């Protein structure tokens, strides 16, 4: 519906028009009635109406002044003057203000006003349709232009430059003026969390449209060229002429920081910018674009919502899986102990270690996937209940995470949810004393734990505890302790370089030969055979 405001200092006239014009059937909504010009102008600013019906002679501000100021703020506003005057001066001023109609109050009829409003409604419909067609045409032109620039960028990166003149002509046609000796500073933009954005914006195509429109409106430096690489990344070419009067690099950084803030404020999404080196020609641009588009581990360690100059990053050759067994045990302790704060602290400790040494991104993602898989597989044994999980789903999620800080947040949240789900489960099949005993053994695989010591710890007679544990779990306590230690031994044999003697010591066995005997009884083969099976 189109919005209408009526302004007249004669209250009977206001009431007459408000009550008798068939607003709804005309497709109109009366949003305000005003008794003076100042009130009318305030209502126009507040409601931004499509039609204003106003008297001329009003206190504080007359109708002609209201029309002049309201139309200055809203040029599409349609206006109808109600007047007691047939004075030529008023009529002439109304024509100058492009008033839609001029109605004398003494001869005013509802049918007359209704007919005028119908005509204005038709004009508004036509204008709206024209505006919509114009916008659609602009969108098509912009989309075609974006597609042409995207094709140019992909071709430049992927194809050799055989004919430099031909490539320079293509660049010139999309606004890159290397032929005019204009240097450019290339900047790569990356939208954060693309999968979430796809859902919010209704697909990849819409996400690209939102990104390009947003950047196009926010980039205020003249001569910039915006080239879309894919749905969530773009190359921005900033003109970078030599000058001593301005610090262009700082100006560009300031603008990019403002864009980051506005993206978060209006689109509720983060964006990162990676600045390359200044390019003097197409060949340099090709090399630089290829270099900074290969973000890989640099983006992983630079973090989200960053604004940095791209640089090569050297990752360590150390094997991150050397630490796997210790990481797994520390995380398992957090889950069994139901300690969310310890979980967050533990994850952060290992993230700091990873960030310090700069392991390859794929190795870190692989480690996290292995940890999560191991936790899910062990969960039933550790907590006596079954949980559903899908390795492929975790693989998709973890390998879609592009930054270390995002990975830390995800893994911390995963552990918190795991601890919460554990707390929500009330397993009536296990008595509190038995559950506490199992938890203590799992969290302390390196301690010597006798049945008498455990019974004393939970304030039970050892014979009573022994019978209770066997009745509740189906195995005796010493067998359970041995099984937990042997499972830990298998993990250390598979995932560490510790010797058999060192593993035996770590699990609380003074004599390696006794440990080997227990391991063979549990697994059917020796510790060394376990390693050779890998």
UniProtKB/TrEMBL annotation:
Q: Please give the Gene3D superfamilies that the UniProt record associates with this protein.
A: 3.40.50.2300, Homeodomain-like (1.10.10.60)
> Any idea where the Response regulatory domain is?
3-120
Q: Where is the HTH araC/xylS-type domain?
A: 435-533
Give the InterPro entries listed for this entry: CheY-like_superfamily, Homeodomain-like_sf, HptR, HTH_AraC, HTH_AraC-typ_CS, Sig_transdc_resp-reg_receiver, Tscrpt_reg_AraC-type_HTH
Extract the SMART domains matched here. HTH_ARAC, REC
Q: Which PROSITE patterns match?
A: HTH_ARAC_FAMILY_1 (PS00041), HTH_ARAC_FAMILY_2 (PS01124), RESPONSE_REGULATORY (PS50110)
Asked whether the UniProt record includes DNA-binding among its keywords, one would answer yes
Keywords, sorted A to Z? Cytoplasm, DNA-binding, Phosphoprotein, Transcription, Transcription regulation, Two-component regulatory system
Modified residue annotations for 4-aspartylphosphate: 55
Compartments it resides in: Cytoplasm
- Name under which the protein is recorded: DNA-binding response regulator
């Amino acid at each position: 519906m189109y919005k209408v405001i009526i302004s007249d200092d004669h209250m009977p006239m206001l009431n007459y028009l408000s009550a008798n014009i068939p607003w709804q059937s005309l497709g109109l909504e009366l949003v305000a009635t005003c008794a003076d010009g100042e009130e009318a102008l305030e209502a126009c600013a507040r409601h931004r109406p499509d039609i204003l019906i106003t008297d001329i002679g009003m206190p504080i501000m007359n109708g002609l002044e209201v029309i002049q100021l309201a139309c200055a703020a809203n040029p599409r506003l349609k206006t109808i003057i109600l007047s007691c005057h047939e004075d030529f001066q008023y009529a002439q001023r109304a024509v100058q203000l492009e008033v839609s109609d001029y109605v004398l109050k003494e001869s005013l009829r509802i049918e007359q006003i209704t007919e005028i409003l119908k005509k204005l409604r038709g004009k508004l419909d036509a204008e709206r349709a024209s505006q919509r067609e114009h916008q659609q045409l602009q969108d098509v032109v912009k989309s075609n232009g974006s597609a042409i620039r995207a094709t140019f960028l992909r071709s430049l990166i992927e194809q050799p430059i055989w004919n430099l003149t031909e490539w320079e002509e293509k660049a010139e046609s999309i606004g890159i003026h290397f032929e005019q000796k204009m240097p450019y500073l290339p900047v790569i933009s990356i939208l954060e969390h693309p999968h979430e954005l796809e859902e919010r914006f209704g697909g990849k195509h819409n996400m690209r449209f939102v990104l390009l429109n947003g950047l196009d409106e926010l980039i205020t430096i003249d001569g910039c060229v915006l080239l879309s690489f894919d749905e969530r990344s773009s190359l921005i070419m900033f003109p970078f002429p030599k000058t001593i009067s301005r610090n262009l690099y700082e100006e560009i950084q300031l603008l990019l920081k403002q864009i980051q803030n506005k993206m978060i404020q209006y689109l509720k999404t983060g964006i990162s910018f990676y600045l390359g080196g200044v390019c003097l020609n197409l060949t340099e641009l090709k090399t630089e674009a290829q270099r900074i588009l290969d973000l890989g581990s640099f983006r992983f360690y630079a973090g989200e919502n960053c604004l940095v100059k791209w640089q090569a990053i050297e990752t360590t050759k150390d094997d991150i899986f050397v630490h796997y067994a210790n990481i797994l045990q520390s995380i398992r302790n957090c889950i069994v102990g139901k300690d969310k704060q310890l979980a967050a602290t533990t994850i952060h400790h290992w993230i700091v270690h990873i960030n310090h040494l700069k392991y390859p991104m794929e190795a870190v993602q692989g480690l996290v996937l292995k940890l999560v898989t191991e936790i899910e597989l062990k969960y039933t044994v550790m907590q006596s209940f079954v949980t559903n999980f899908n390795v492929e789903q975790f693989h998709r999620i973890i390998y879609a995470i592009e930054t270390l800080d995002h990975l830390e947040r995800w893994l911390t949240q995963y552990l918190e949810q795991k601890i919460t789900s554990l707390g929500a489960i009330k397993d009536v099949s296990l008595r509190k004393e038995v559950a506490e005993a199992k938890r203590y053994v799992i969290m302390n695989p390196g301690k010597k734990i006798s049945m008498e010591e455990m019974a004393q710890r939970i304030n039970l007679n050892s014979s009573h505890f022994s019978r209770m544990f066997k009745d509740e779990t189906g195995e005796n306590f010493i067998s359970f302790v041995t099984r937990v230690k042997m499972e830990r031994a298998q993990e250390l044999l598979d995932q560490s370089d510790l010797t058999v003697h060192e593993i035996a010591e770590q699990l609380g066995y003074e004599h390696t030969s006794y440990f080997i005997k227990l391991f063979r009884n549990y697994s059917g083969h020796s510790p060394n055979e376990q390693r050779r099976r890998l």
